[in-house]
Amino acid sequence: MAVHSSPVHHPLFARFYAKAGPVLDRRAGMADRRRELLAGLSGRVIEVGAGQGLNFPYYPRAVSEVVAVEPERLLRRRAAQAAVRCGVPVDVVPAVAEALPVKSEAFDAAVVSLVLCSVRDVPRALAELRRVLRPGGELRFFEHGVADGGVLPAVQRALDRTVWPRLFGGCHTSRDPLAAIGAAGFAIGTWRRLRVPDGPVRLPSSPCVTGVAVRPE
């Protein structure tokens, strides 16, 4: 299987997301979702696709170290700045999800937050996450993906074949993160579906799923 290790560079999207991310946290309830996603974590954590570090303020004090992987240069610089202000030790490193530069079974937990939509090889990325987690380690996920009914799935697939990935840094709206996590050998525990933002407007990226999966012993 080929490993995609070439640099990721989406300067236009990175600049857009650097400004839009904090706005979504305030206005679309993402701050609460981040807090919920990270609650109860402890020990060593790897976060893949850390972006500009919007999750960093919500890591519990029981976390001894966060290795934050971010391939996009502008967002990685912003993440390094955010790491300085974080209440737990955060090491921001350049890498892609499909080739994590860390030892096997080195982490107690892994975090993906709006990441699997844009990785180049989802099975390979999830295989890497399983590799670096200790047996019994948790994968915390908050991802958007394919809608579960109506006409929106067809709209999502059409957008993914045309303009959406080009406009939004390689993002795909019609992937099924829950199915992919299960297919990668994780045992899926608690999870729920939700919409972001939660309101009358349904964006192609609104359908989301959040939960916990475990690397089997």
Task: Based on the model shown, name its key terms.
32% helix; 7 helices; 7-stranded mixed sheet; 217 residues; alpha/beta; Rossmann fold
Characterization of this structure:
Keywords: Methyltransferase, Transferase. One of its GO terms (biological process) is methylation. This is Methyltransferase type 11. By secondary structure, the protein is an alpha/beta fold. It is built from seven helices and seven strands; from the N terminus they run ααββαββαβαααββ. Helix content is 32%, strand content 24%. The chain has a seven-stranded mixed β-sheet with strand order 3-2-1-4-5-7-6, sandwiched between helices. Helix 1 packs across helix 3 (73-84).
Uncertain residue ranges: none
Distance between the termini: 25 Å
Strand ordering within the main sheet: 3-2-1-4-5-7-6
CATH class: Alpha Beta
Write the layout of secondary structure elements.
Elements: H1 11-27, H2 30-38, E1 43-48, E2 63-69, H3 73-84, E3 90-93, E4 107-113, H4 122-132, E5 133-144, H5 152-161, H6 164-167, H7 177-183, E6 187-195, E7 207-214
Parallel strand pairs: 1-2, 1-4, 2-3, 4-5
Antiparallel strand pairs: 5-7, 6-7
Helix pairs in contact: 1-3
Brief sketch in words of this structure:
One of its GO terms (molecular function) is S-adenosylmethionine-dependent methyltransferase activity. By secondary structure, this protein is an alpha/beta fold.
